Each structure stands twice: as structure tokens, then as C-alpha cells.
Automatic annotation (TrEMBL):
Keyword NAD applies: no
Name of the protein described by the UniProt record: Nucleoside phosphorylase
Keywords: Glycosyltransferase, Transferase
Source species: Microbacterium esteraromaticum
Family: Belongs to the PNP/UDP phosphorylase family.
Amino acid sequence: MQAQDRQHHIQVAPGEVGRYVLLPGDPGRSEPIARLFDEPRLVARNREYETWSGYLDGELVSVTSTGIGCPSAAIALEELVKVGADTFIRVGTSGSLQHDIRSGDLGVINAAIRDEGTSSHYLPIEFPAVADIDVTRALAIGARSTGKTVHVGVSQSKDSFYGQHEPGRMPMARRLQERWSAWMAGGAICSEMEAAALYIVASTLRVRAGAS
């Protein structure tokens, strides 16, 4: 394998990952997820990107961590597509935006509010960040099979963690709090930091993406 065959950031080459890729944020979650595969093996580890591959029901599948936020998630998706992947599932945690959603409930994100900057470098803000319907349906079925409470709906994708958790100390406090109230009133189920960019990049590249 030539060095130039490897993608610049994720350091993965064609043939090393499957068409189906799970995308956690934390690199520390890649190996535990991969241990659920048959024959798991470490493919590459570089910066925030840690990739493992293995098999599920005889199909080559992979997991690549993206780090925190939309810019690094977009890079991961771009480079994974270049090496042959075409179906992506973001897996991770999020913060509830509704009072009836409890810690430990499962969420499936069918669309995302583009309250971040990365996706605007791909498509105008009027273009919706929407998950692939087949991936979303499969995630909802799988989530409900666990017996846990499942919420399917819209997330808010943001760039600033502390803008959400400590908005009162920000110079933009009033605007942040007004927008936060609007997302809640509109029925958004959660707040996270990657889905909108993943959905917009996936739309641009004509691949499939979902999130849970």
C-alpha cells in the first residue's frame, strides 16, 4: 500500500473499510464498538480519527471516530467516501430539549437544525439537513427492539458546547436563550454537534447518513 493511497486525515486506504461505517465522536469508543464485530482489527489511528474494521453477518463494516463537532465530522465523511464507504450512522450522546425525554432514552435524528457553520460551505442554509429515510427507519426499528423509550425527531446541531450550557455569561446571551427557546417550542428533541454537517455532506456526495 502506497502512502499516497491513504487519506490525509483518517489515514485509511481503499479496501480497509466497509461500505457501512459507524461514527462515534470519542476515539475511546471506537475499540469497544469494534469488539462487537467478528474479527475486529485496528486500521488506523491519527489525531481524533480512530478506525477499526470487522465483520457482521459476513459483511465488512467499520467504525471511525470523528472527534467533537461538525468540521472534523465532515472531514471523516469526505475521506471515508473516497475509500468506498456509502452508508454512515452517527452514534453518540446528546442533550435533551424536551422535559419528557429522560437520561437513558434513545433518540433517532431524522433531521437537524443547521445552527453551525460547516454545512454552509456545502449548501445554502435553505437546504434542509435530512437523514436518509431508509437508514432512519432501520435505526428506529432497532432502537425500539431494545425495549427502551425511543424518540424520533429533529436535533439542533451547534458549534459551541458552552454556548448551550452557560449561555448567560456570553455576550450573545439573549439571542442564544431566545433561539434555545424556539428550538424547544418547535419540538426539537435534542442538541448535539455533528448531525447537520453529516447530513448536508451526505446529500452533497449522494451517500446515506443517519444518527442515533
